[in-house]
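Chapter summary example: a protein plus potassium ion.
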Amino acid sequence: MKKKFLCCCPSLIPSRETACFYLLCVLIALYMLAGAAIFSSLERPAEVKAHQLWERRLRDFSHEHNINCKDLKSLLFHYEEARTAGIRAERGRALWDFPGAFYFVGTVVSTIGFGVTAPITGTGKVLLVFYGLLGCSATILFFNLFLERVITLLSLMIFWCHRRRTGNSGLLGRAIEDNGNEEWKPSVYQVTLILFVAVLLVACGAASLYSAMEGWTYAESLYFCFVAFSTVGFGDFVSGQRENHEDTWAYQVANCLLMLLGVCCTYSLFNTISVIIKQGLNWMLRTLAWMFGG
Amino acid sequence: MKKKFLCCCPSLIPSRETACFYLLCVLIALYMLAGAAIFSSLERPAEVKAHQLWERRLRDFSHEHNINCKDLKSLLFHYEEARTAGIRAERGRALWDFPGAFYFVGTVVSTIGFGVTAPITGTGKVLLVFYGLLGCSATILFFNLFLERVITLLSLMIFWCHRRRTGNSGLLGRAIEDNGNEEWKPSVYQVTLILFVAVLLVACGAASLYSAMEGWTYAESLYFCFVAFSTVGFGDFVSGQRENHEDTWAYQVANCLLMLLGVCCTYSLFNTISVIIKQGLNWMLRTLAWMFGG
Ligand SMILES: [K+]
Ligand SMILES: [K+]
């Protein structure tokens, strides 16, 4: 059974596409350099301050209880080891019971990877590689199918609004619908705006829930939402890890569903923004070509 | 300037596509439940053991140095606070110097998000949301353009091999090439296999480097490579964080380039596997339709 590859793969790429790719590489590199400079200048002083505070606290504790600093450090090494297995100073929920493992598996296939739970056994690590390979691929397909569906839905919505506004109803409208919307397409800006509002609404809703249940401020909850929805998943804030959350099934389910909805919407948003970026790149290339008389 | 949306958005989706989507949802849910059960049974005993070990160590330390357990816990709370700012018991490199911030920014735009470094200042957190929004979108575009290029390149490679093997050279070959490879398309299985071998080679190469530089075993390095390349990024292993790495520019650059190459190849691999999964779903739907006489 030799199936042909479904993707279109033209052998002669238009050189504009390739130029677009190289321009994007350069711009991303510059964007990263600029970002590094800004974040470095923002966060470095806080890091130095945190270092000093911690060193002082460690010294004070060592003096107060008359313990060798080396002994304390060895305790902290052990703590680090325990942390890898998911143990925290603040007593949290069990991580590898079934709901915990389900949450973990969700962070794997969505590639969020908070890292509060990560396999510590050798078998678990080996299994993770194979499990993730299939799971992440399936999720990419899921996201892409979701994206298609969202774009279709939004196109229809915008089309209906457009028709109602222009009063262009009846035969023409139906004809366009029957033709598979070929003649009328919504602007990418409209779709992006709607998706942006959708992400914002989901994030605001989720943040209200998290700020009530996790003891975070509303701003922290919004930050968590962005970090989770974009699948970056630093793990500095992780929802549903407190001891009392073990018994609140409703919250755990709501948490998973909100996360799913948020990740799907954000993935779609990123994709529509990437279309806008591509248009911008093409515009820049045209301008460059015009400037240098290409 | 009202640009039309570039994506194709048919208003009448074939119901097979929608069925495919729902089937995928069900299968992913089952896959996650199965995964949760397996990982829970694998990791739960290790978690309990790690808990006991840590409780014993804490108790022993408290007895040995005659300190109240509550005092020790308060130290650990402070340590947790310091950890959020990137401070570790084992002295590591500065996190927010320029190369560190660049590494951080890389983990944001690629959505790896190891979380060793995460912004702790309020301004940093707010900035991250906007920075990530644009950065992640640009990277998605980058990955998609890379994917197109890789598929084209592999298609040409396979085509040349195919032509050489069948001796079908000269005019026909050139004609197919000029027609933009429309008539001849490589099998998705061939492309997937090549990408799989490519990811494996990059991972093995990177793992040799990491096991030499990070003090991890080769197996741990391979596990790290998978976790990083798939952009899951748990943060249980993070490359380039040791104190001596601050001075090894060559290693830091190699680390970034390997990560970039690995992530790009793995993204392409996931996408080709997702095409195979879609074929599998369609086959399942046909079988189901046949079984129930649809
Ligand atoms: K992560
Ligand atoms: K991630």
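Key point: Residues A 113, 115, 233; B 113, 115, 233 surround potassium ion (ligand 1) (CB under 6 Å).
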